[in-house]
Amino acid sequence: MRATAVDRRSWIAGSGLGAAGWWVSGALATASGASPLWSQQQASGALGGTLEQRLAPPTAKVQAVLDTDTYNEIDDQFAVAYALLSPQHMEIEAVYAAPFQNERSKSAGEGMQKSYEEILRILGRLSRKTEGYAYLGSERFMAAPRQPVESDAARNLIAKAMQPRTSPLYVLTIGAPTNVSSALLMEPAIRDRIVVVWLGGQPLSFPTAREFNLQQDLHSSRVLLDSGVALVVIPTRNVSEHLRTTVPEVQHHLKGKSPIADYLATEYEAYTQWKSPHAGYPLSRVIWDISAIAWLIEPKWVPTEVVPSPGLSDQYTWERPTGRHPVRFATYCSRDAIFNDLFRKLQRGS
After folding, report:
1. What does the pLDDT look like over 159-180, one tens digit per residue?
2. 60-241+285-348: which CATH architecture?
3. Distance (Å, whole) CA 127 – CA 222
4. Of the candidates 171, 61, 75, 87, which has an alpha carbon nearest to the alpha carbon of residue 115?
């Protein structure tokens, strides 16, 4: 069924939450007048045990999908390649184009389309299929709470999450979470069948939560935080920000090493020159999004802690109400270990 707004009946019936669910009479119930309630009752089709068990770092190979605003800057391209070149740790079942809007895109829809085209270029250099593997995502951000955006990506995520499985599907979300949150709203039963690893926001101690992925779509960011889905949040400042590299380092380790390594080196140099044309020193750039891939490969490289899920205010600040469900927040990234693994895999290129 095509959905442009939440069907309350499918939320209740599909999730197994009944009237006790956090969706009540078509509106979010609130605690202390602010933060949405969540239900501790799991759907009958839950995978991976309890929420706390799904939040545990993986200890074996996982099945995953990747949701990425690939053309936004230069880090997503590295993350897509890193995930696809790590088959011993993850099987990437699909790649979804996420919307974005900045100086490289006049609208969210244009950003999504450019991201889709960039995904195809990366898959081509890795000699990977594109048909039935790369999917167009949302053409806009969520306009209001509880109003999902229809897209091929959201529908495919629902279909894959509902397939018979013995363990949860990991959803690597390294852009605005519009596609993922829309899928959660369209089919709430997937909540207890997936684990979302999201690059977004700032550390909880910061006076602001503002960060590109989070602030692009406030409503979809809130869905991730409020729904009770198993969620691993990797903040930017002082966490994934450690993942810096420079043009000389990229040239030394990647230039001419493999088709995908050469492509990423060329793109990195061009993007750095475009962003900082007059820099007279070895300017560094952060490859933020590889942190989400690295956590699946070796959780010790991206240490995390379990905390109550924060709320998100209209002013993009963290709220810390009581009684919230647990989520996992990253606290650090081991820069050298991650880049050593990434560069070696890119050099091999297959």
Report:
1. 999 999 999 999 999 999 999 9
2. Alpha-Beta Complex (3.90)
3. 37
4. 75
